[in-house]
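Open question from group meeting: does this chain pack into something compact, or does most of it stay loose? Before anyone orders reagents, we agreed to write out a predicted structure and look at it together. Recording both the input and the output here so the notebook holds the full record.
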Amino acid sequence: MAAYILRRLALMIPTLFGIMAVSFIVIQFAPGGPVEQVVASLQGQGGGAADRLGGGGGGEAAAMSGESSGYRGAQGLDPEFIKRLEQQFGFDKPPLERFATMIWDYARFDFGTSFFSNATVVDLIIQKLPVSISLGLWITLLSYIISIPLGIRKALKEGSRFDTWTSAVIIVAYAIPGFLFAVLLIVLFAGGSFLDWFPLRGLTSDNWAQLSWPERIVDYFWHLTLPLIALSLSAFATTTLLTKNSFLDEIRKQYVTTARAKGLTERRVLYGHVFRNAMLIIVAGFPGAFISAFFSGSLLIETIFSLDGLGLLSFESIYKRDYPVVFATLYIFSLIGLLTTLISDLTYTWIDPRIDFEKREV
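Structure tokens returned:
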């Protein structure tokens, strides 16, 4: 097993390198980079804004020049000011050198500073973590708490009226877009057109620091209620059906028939034999499900409920062309995704010792 783990860890290096290389190449051809963003913001602002953003004389930034800088909308700005912007953002160096520097820094977990927020990328991510942890953790737990008992019940009642109507509910819930349901919840329960029971911004109230610990817990879940309901509407559909099909597959196997023939009670057969084998794929997939919910979250849900999490951070960094944040989050998410896949495989072997990845080719 140690050799298998080492091989998987070694393969992560070229995988990460490939992900970053492809993303870097794509970014080189994407219009509207950081320099263009600053140039666009300077149009009509005069020399003062140019002086603050580019560093240098304000009049020089706004000076008219007949030379073209090569950036869209930069006509009329002093080429020297454009060069200072390129130096500020690191674009005065060749692409290959910039990529090599980035890879070397990321290998040492040095993610640099945001172009526009004047904060380190690590600090920005840490600021957004409470929202992402809250949404990812509780959605994953709610999904499993609902899905596993429901899936087992559907497997035992296959073909019954209960199985039919619950399947219909699951399919309908899965088909409804979460952001539309979120808007409906706001209209009904968050001061829209009817009731005003729940808050509409942040994870905690403004007076959270003055609250006692029991009040803080209540306030925390009070703010999370509507976002979790909106996210969980379709979150449990896949796990429920997977649980049902896994149980049905195990129930139909020969060892179950043999156990029943020996006189074991149905409860003993189900929970003493079937449960462990059927839950293998569900439990082993828990690390991946949690990480997926933790990092992917829902951009629209975060926006609708004014929850400033990692999803919103990633979107805004792409929109603003804040490349240090874009590449750092991509690197971190990719690394965690690869590690989670390895953990999921190891979980399989922990649950079922018969599975031995050591004998397989990676």
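Observations to bring back to the group:
DSSP finds 18 helices and no strands in the chain.
Residues 44-68 have pLDDT under 50 and may be disordered.
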